[in-house]
Amino acid sequence: MRVRNPRTGVYDYEIPDCNAAQIAQRCKQLRNHQDAWVRSGITNRIAVLQEWKQAIIINKELLIGALAADTGRTWETIAEIDWVIDSIDKWCATTKDFYEEYANWIPYQLVAIISPWNFPLALSMMDTIPALLSGAAVLVKPSEITPRFIEVINRTILSVPGLQKILLFTPGDASVGAIMVGLADLVCFTGSVNTGMKISLAASKKLTPVLMEIGAKDPAIVLQGANLEVAATAILKGSTTNAGQNCLSFERVYVHESIHDELVDLLIEKTKALQLVTDDQHKGEIGPIIFEKQVLTINTHLEDAKNLGAIILTGSNACEQIHGGFYCRPTIVVNVTHNMLLMKEETFGPIMPIMSFSTKEEVVELANATKYSLGAAVFAATDEEAEDIANRIHAGSISINESALTAILHYGDHLSFNMSGIGGLRIGQENFSRFLKKRTIHLLKKSNSH
After folding, report:
1. Among the options 18, 27, 188, 247, which is catalytic?
2. Does domain 2-214+420-438 bear CATH number 2.60.40.1220?
3. 191 exposed, middle or buried (CB, 10 Å; 0-12, 13-18, 19+)?
4. Which class in CATH covers the domain with range 218-409?
5. N or C, which end of the chain has less CB nearby within 10 Å?
6. Which whole-number Å values give the CA distances from 115 to 139, 188, 384, 425, in the listed order?
């Protein structure tokens, strides 16, 4: 299968085909070594993960090169790898206490992880690391859109004797993922709603549990009295990081009518400082749209909004093609309504649709008027006022006066509501429990009396 470079548009990489027999053999090999892995104990598993971390650090430059080629951006790639390295430390630090409490729980034997293209390494590792620490064997299929890092990450795995028999990253398209779903004891999926639905249906044939994070339309709410500099900075970051290709991206912005124009002007001014990453991959902030099909979604949402009366103040009327890659400039859209695709469906681009509100009751209703409920943010004059609104928002993770704090801090719980996903807490300590089953042993002792 040929792979497209998002900066040049050239198909300059290939991944090998993988058939059902090969996947079945890999799953069998992983299963055969899982029992020894779990019996080795949590102290050993922590030591092995720490050894793997060192291998990742040694191969960091190779990972940067592979990931940057697939995504067209560099500084987010470096941050992504650093996040993974930090995550190994944080999960290792919390796992021992967790397993003392959950001593009678046993892991799913084989966990299949199917991960997306927007943060190829981080979003595959987010489930892989706790699954391994839980004692499971793990087979990972990253997206076929961004597979170049697989060769490097498998090299790091092979350099760690304790890891090489219970973890494997495999290339492949949707057909490989479908085979994995039929062979695993637990499936983790991060990606689109449509694919998530297909996986859930396929897994149901064997009652295989599925953990999914599949869609988002996160709101940012700016109340009267909020620090507008803080709000504008966070909204810009939360909407444009990775060119908006981020599950926790702000895709709806609600601003109190008394400060609407001032905040819009501030955002317009801030967007002027952002440059596209084109000729020099080390210069600029807005990289290309990674997946070519996503360009159609962005363009369709913008066209629909314009046709329904929205006004684009700055940015793109549509994605631009530069040197073969597709780019979307940071785009501020006003005069938006909830009947527009831009306010209903996941756009996955650096778009800031801004809508004014009059009362707190109104903005709570607007924020909750979505089928997706992954995250949100509230900006207010006081923490108490922000928390009052946050407690009325139907979303799994809500940041106060900042964007995506669970991902940034890597602490606290993170749960998907509604059609954003199913399957328990992610990121927080209880993440480990997703990969475990409780085992109870009952013993009826015979009486010694005659």
Report:
1. 247
2. no
3. buried
4. alpha beta
5. C
6. 11, 8, 37, 17
Indicate where the chain has its CATH 3.40.309.10 domain(s).
Answer: 218-409
The CA angle 265-267-269, to the nearest 5 degrees, is 70
CA dihedral 200, 404, 66, 37 (to 10 degrees): -60
179-226 pLDDT, tens digit per residue, is: 999 999 999 999 999 999 999 999 999 999 999 999 999 999 999 999
Alpha-carbon torsion 146, 152, 153, 158, what sign?
positive
Q: For residues 294 and 245, give the distance between their C-alpha atoms in angstroms, rounded to a whole number.
A: 9
Residue 142 half-sphere exposure toward CB, CA atoms < 13 A: 27
Q: Indicate if 92 belongs to the active site.
A: no
pTM for this prediction: 0.95
At position 448, the amino acid (one-letter code) is N
Q: Is 286 helix (H, G, I), strand (E, B) or coil?
A: strand
Active-site residue identified among 213, 285, 345, 385? 213
Write out pLDDT tens, residues 103-119. 688 999 999 999 999 99
Determine whether 27 is an active site residue.
no
